[in-house]
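[Q] Does anyone have a clean structure-token version of this?
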Amino acid sequence: MKDVNSEVAGWLRDLAFVQKSTQSRWGYKRAASAVMYLPVPIDTLLNPDGTLQKIPSIGPASTRVILEVLRDGTSPIVEKAIEAAEPKTRDDILRRRGLRSNFLSRAAADAAMRAPKPNAPSRADVLCDLQMHSDWSDGGQTLEDIIQTGISRGYTHSAVTDHSYGLPIAGGLSMERVEQQHREIDVLNGKYRGQFRLLKGIEANIRADGSVDMTYPELAVMEIVVAAPHSALRSSADQTPRMLGAVQTPGVHILGHPRGRMYGSRPGVTAQWEKVFDAAARLGVAIELDGDPSRQDLDYDLARLAVPSGCLFAIDSDAHATDQWWYAETALAHARLAGVPRDRVINCWPLARLLDWAHQRSLAA
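[A] Here you go.
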């Protein structure tokens, strides 16, 4: 699948990393982000005379690179700058290029959402988001913001999954704080009864040995538990036992952003993923497709490998603010490209079915 916006953004990112000026470096990075977030392919914004329409955050220098790439599929400006760079910088750019595979631009994600896909989940099928963060940890949205935004999107329920106490750098919640949050959730659920249900969740951290940073009694007070890796994400060592350990942990419902990869920065966990998916399918643990543009994890290629195992899937935004809920559409686009069946996406289940599955998964422990 050709994604012209992603291709153009990649060249701008390359140029950013050879800049000696911080201002220039951030200028090209902003231009790259602007291209990735465009709602339409950038080549549709060419004027009849071959010039480019004005796009916010994209200046004349970036425009010259964009026009080169659209015309020739490459950029002599960028290639010349890389050639003149220090060997260490050139090597770093080559490394970063290898960490941009299967990241969809917003325009490409929107195209995947529009393409006919029988039995695939659509935006109208999605009833909830099962990973997001509030101002109780490292988010910027209140619990009531989450409820109101969910209602505006036509959702009937969602989970707040602030970080667990094992990740203090992200404002992880102590169990005392969890209890306080749950009391506030109870009050809000009473206020919005019949309109929306906010589920009590947590994002637990997967340690290097595959255990999670909470005890089973602590996990048991949660309605939704997302377990996700946040360390050892640059290692090339096989971490299959670590991921199997998380999936096999009693009380875990969702394996969140399983690789922990980051666009152009880190590869994330290396594992024998078919084994992980088989274990998840056997135990009834859902595999997450995280739509944060910098994560997109699992991507459509890896998610496609999970489909034959019979896995359940979660399609989430990982939103930390109300203006990030649209990230879920990127996750949904990956699911559609991967051929994930609608009925295996737990976000498409009515609340009663979701809660019954979560309860059965907890009992299986």
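[Q] Thanks! Anything notable?
[A] The longest helix spans residues 175-191.
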